[in-house]
Write a structure and sequence with these properties.
The complex is a heterodimer of chains A (about 450) and B (about 280). Chain A has about 450 residues and is α/β, with parallel strands linked by helices. Chain A is about 40% helix and about 20% strand. In chain B, about 70% of the residues lie in helices and about 0% in strands.
Chain lengths: ~450, ~280
């Protein structure tokens, strides 16, 4: 509130004029030519936590992760990815420089600080956590997700508070679909791309006209992934959905759903559950004899799933994922990331860590390109769709819905006997370019909203 | 129906532990869910060391018995004369400490104990297939409840405990050392939860949070069955198990709603619970 000085109106007028001029120049070739590279805070009006959040020597990043509850394991991995990225950005690490070439140390010379709070994968808690980081710490950017319900809630918070939001893990089509916002960005793959990538593999391997049973968690992620998957298989392969069992998030016991699936006569058991729900439902599916009669498919791979499920239950299981460490043979930055991560934390990063690291690195690149922490300029830098190279090769953001165009990785679970080494859980079958897998930008009803 | 029976049997066992502690000591033990969790983890460690499921069950139960006794001696007994709010706060605090200690030691990743060889596989029940181990659980819990029944109704200790539930002051004035009895009761109550924790581990794999959910259900069971009543805990457990599983079949989102609706109904129609004792309060 203290930032609203009496000359705010004249600044706004000034901006309106420059914006018009900028647009005119942009039409002829790129507004960055017009905008000074290191514009100071005084050039832009106050918005969200700008300029208060970036007036000192450091800027604050607000993180909300599930550290307890159903998605706790994945939340910890995300946090580690964030911590490593922040450490690397502050130190000007070569891996960050490879993704964000303009980075020296920090972001626009400012050190990154962060705070993290536990949201138990509950949207209300996540919004409270981040609201506190915004009011108390003047956070310039927020991160969170794991549950798409959280990501969608934070999308709305970001747009309302005019503070950028980088989604962590979020598999729902809605995050960059019907609930997309101007202030939100997503790195990872999602229901639509997962289905378009995995569907053809299933049809090729098992043929047409099969019967599928789905186990779907009852929220935006589950519903959209299940729909994308069944739409593809039923339309392209003539498969039938014999049952779609919808279960609550965080259910401790899946017996009633699994009994229905066991008696459904399906050939395939497509388990959309995530986090601990996936672990429990797969273990219990084994107990109910489902896995003996039906072939398990995991449309949207779950970090640590193979480690946690144990036994040989994941052997031969097909899944789509955003990242698996063994793609390092193909991507040098993946190798670098794996080395740095495992050196610090003692295990190979899962895709939850990868997506968080990449999000922060790409944010650093966007801020450096904008030359200011003024959010609308950062968003415009993102929307230029500049090509970047990350751990999954060349990627760029789609300006129409703020979804990263990035490859989808198809993996198959290894049998215990075939594992070479402790963390050799999945075979990388294929790495598919992302662009052809994506829906048209407006197909899911994305309307980004205003910059200011 | 069968799911309800399995869940109900477990709830009955855990709740009977909670209810005898409350009935005798008057302490509402919010760390009861943590006892359930600790039993599972202790069993996991024992299983890892020996590979025997029977040893794991024994170790889980005994470990929690010891934790319960130590907890009573060191902390809880100082709270008998303090207001209920203090007792709730201290047991709630302890439960957080236990959960975070386990998280620190084992991490948040879920751990699995496989069902014993004699309980693995699927049983053909004629009308449907059912995991054998879940049937075994019902049997194990029934035996445990029977043992608890014998202790409570067929021994001198049990007589004192039941008398204590009726009127602790009177028992005290008869020259019986209630505090020693309290310690034993607290230990046995905790052990019931710990035992259930390890028996349940092959059904629902272990995480540090596993006790929290069960604690809420346990309280509902105790309220439905009648506070301080051992038969009430069993009846309440079986009823709650059925409510949860039948509602789950129709619409899982309403499972808890129905459970709390049933609890409210009982509170309105029979405030002391289905088998609650009139003499309390």
């Amino acid at each position: 509130m203290t930032n609203r000085s009496s000359d705010a109106t004249s600044r706004r007028d000034f901006l309106r004029t420059t914006a018009l001029a900028g647009a005119a120049v942009a039409a002829g070739g790129g507004s960055s030519l017009f905008m000074p590279m290191h514009a100071s805070a005084a050039d832009y009006p106050a918005i969200g936590t700008f300029p208060a959040g970036s007036s000192g020597n450091s800027v604050f990043i607000g993180l909300t992760m599930p550290r307890t509850g159903t998605y706790a394991v994945q939340g910890e991995d995300e946090l580690k990815g964030c911590q490593l990225a922040i450490e690397h950005i502050n130190a000007g690490h070569p891996l960050i420089k490879a993704i964000s070439p303009k980075t020296t140390k920090g972001v626009l010379g400012k050190e990154l600080k962060f705070g993290v709070a536990d949201d138990e994968a509950k949207p209300n808690s996540a919004v409270q956590n981040i609201s506190r980081f915004i009011t108390e710490n003047k956070a310039v950017v927020m991160m969170g997700g794991t549950s798409s319900a959280v990501a969608v809630a934070l999308n709305k918070l970001a747009q309302r508070e005019k503070v950028l939001f980088l989604s962590a893990v979020s598999g729902s089509n809605d995050t960059t679909g019907k609930d997309c916002v101007r202030y939100g960005f997503r790195e990872c793959t999602y229901g639509q791309t997962a289905a378009a990538a995995l569907g053809p593999v299933l049809l090729k391997e098992f043929g047409k006209g099969k019967k599928a049973a789905y186990l779907t968690p009852d929220y935006t992620y589950g519903h959209t992934v299940q729909k994308s998957m069944s739409d593809y298989l039923n339309k392209e392969g003539g498969w039938t959905t014999v049952t779609n069992q919808v279960c609550p998030l965080g259910a401790p016991d899946y017996s009633s759903f699994l009994l229905n699936i066991a008696n459904s006569g399906a050939d395939f058991f497509l388990n959309v559950n995530w986090g601990r729900d996936a672990v429990l439902s797969i273990q219990q599916a084994k107990q109910f004899g489902v896995l003996d009669k039906q072939k398990l498919v995991v449309p949207y791979q779950v970090p640590f799933l193979a480690r946690e499920v144990g036994g040989d239950l994941m052997g031969g299981v097909l899944a789509s994922t955003s990242y698996w460490w063994q793609i390092e043979d193909k991507y040098p930055l993946a190798k670098m990331f794996n080395e740095e991560f495992s050196k610090k934390y003692g295990y190979m990063p899962e895709w939850s860590a990868q997506t968080c690291y990449a999000q922060l690195a790409m944010w650093a690149a966007a801020v450096e390109a904008a030359g200011t922490f003024y959010p609308p300029e950062i968003i415009k830098a993102y929307e230029k769709g500049t090509k970047m190279t990350t751990m999954v090769g060349e990627v760029s953001f789609r300006p129409e819905d703020h979804q990263l165009i990035r490859p989808v990785i198809i993996v198959r679970g290894k049998k215990k006997a075939d594992m070479k080494g402790k963390e050799d859980y999945w075979d990388v079958l294929d790495i598919l370019p992302g662009a052809p897998l994506m829906q048209k930008p407006d197909e899911f009803g994305c309307k980004l909203g205003d910059y200011t | 129906m069968f799911n309800g029976l399995v869940l109900g049997a477990l709830l009955a066992l855990i709740s009977s532990g909670l209810t005898i502690i409350y009935g005798t000591l008057g302490v509402l033990n919010l760390a009861h869910g943590a006892m359930f969790m600790l039993g599972g983890y202790a069993g996991y460690v024992a299983f890892g060391a020996t590979g025997s499921f029977v040893v794991a069950i024994a170790a889980g139960a005994l470990f929690v018995l010891v934790v319960g006794v130590v907890m009573e001696r060191v902390i809880i007994r100082h709270f008998y004369s303090r207001p209920n709010e203090d007792q709730i706060l201290v047991t709630f605090g302890l439960s957080i400490v236990y959960v975070e200690l386990v998280r620190f030691a084992f991490g948040s990743q879920s751990l699995t104990i496989p069902p014993p060889p004699w309980g693995a596989g699927v049983t053909q029940l004629g009308f449907m297939l059912y995991p054998t181990y879940r049937l075994v659980v019902v049997g194990i819990v029934a035996v445990a409840l029977l043992a608890l029944y014998i202790v409570l109704y067929r021994t001198r200790l049990g007589m004192i405990v039941r008398a204590g539930i009726e009127d602790a002051l009177m028992v005290d004035s008869l020259g019986i050392n209630v505090y020693r009895i309290f310690m034993i009761v607290f230990g046995i109550g905790a052990m019931a939860a710990g035992f259930a924790g390890i028996v349940n581990a092959p059904v629902v794999s272990l995480t540090p949070d596993v006790g929290e959910m069960i604690l809420v259900q346990t309280f509902v069971v105790v309220v439905i069955g009648g506070v301080g009543s051992f038969p009430g805990a069993i009846l309440g457990g079986l009823i709650s198990g059925q409510i949860l599983s039948i509602t789950s079949m129709i619409n899982p989102g309403y499972a808890y709603v129905m459970l709390f609706a049933a609890m409210t109904l009982v509170l309105v129609l029979r405030p002391r619970g289905l088998m609650g004792l009139r003499s309390r309060d």
